[in-house]
Design a protein that fits this description.
Elements (H helix, E strand, L loop, with lengths): L2 E6 L5 H8 L5 E10 L5 E2 L3 E7 L5 H37 L4 E7 L5 E7 L22 H8 L7 H7 L3 E3 L6 H8 L14 E3 L14 H17 L2 H17 L4
Parallel strand pairs: 1-2, 7-8
Antiparallel strand pairs: 2-4, 3-4, 5-6
Length: 253
Amino acid sequence: MGQIWILKDNKLDLKKTLNIVIKYSVDIIILNLLKVEKNSNLINSKYHFENYEISKFYGINLLLKIILDKILSLFFLFITSPLLLLSSVLIYFEDGFPIFFTQDRTGWDGRRFKIYKLRTLKNIKFIKTDQVTEGDSRLLTIGKFLRKFSIDELPQFLNVLKGDMSIVGPRPHMVQHDIYYSNLFNQFLKRNKANPGLTGWAQVHGLRGPTNDFKLMERRMEYDLWYLNNWSIFLDLRIILKTFVIIFKHKGV
């Protein structure tokens, strides 16, 4: 996690500076060169500093999250392996290879990674950035079922084992979509202050599926930012439990 230190003095327009740096997925610390006092938040024994925005993803809690991710990923991959095998066979008999679909997504600190999914679309040429909608003609017959119950997302447990993703976190978007929405919403890239997740706070509040409506994306972003600011291991466990209900209550497309 990167940091930006802002040195506050008579010449600095703090509000303007914050508006510039607030969009980045970094910690922000303000060092006040005008304020000299004696307390615990001091630099060089005299300059006051303020943790304006600090990530909660560090230390022992982050280590526990990583360990929980690895254990649960191995467990879920084991118990769903028959389903993954059957799905792979059905994809092959309907439309041949490839079985898996990969795509560049944006991860922690903006790092790109290849996300894994079971292929649900026909092996034809189409615009890769076009999101799948209900009744999409590109969908395989088996693909409709896989997406309905989020079975196509199961290979992402491999992304979790690799460290690209977490079980819980903001859902990763296509790189092109991140670039587009970051120009619309000043704090959009702050979603990258943690590993993206298979499920998240936005998803358990019904914000799943396509995000063609910018208002819908804004709501998803707000839920993601709330999660980042209020994260805890217990919140992750709550989201995981709620996800099982959401999958059947609000089926995907």
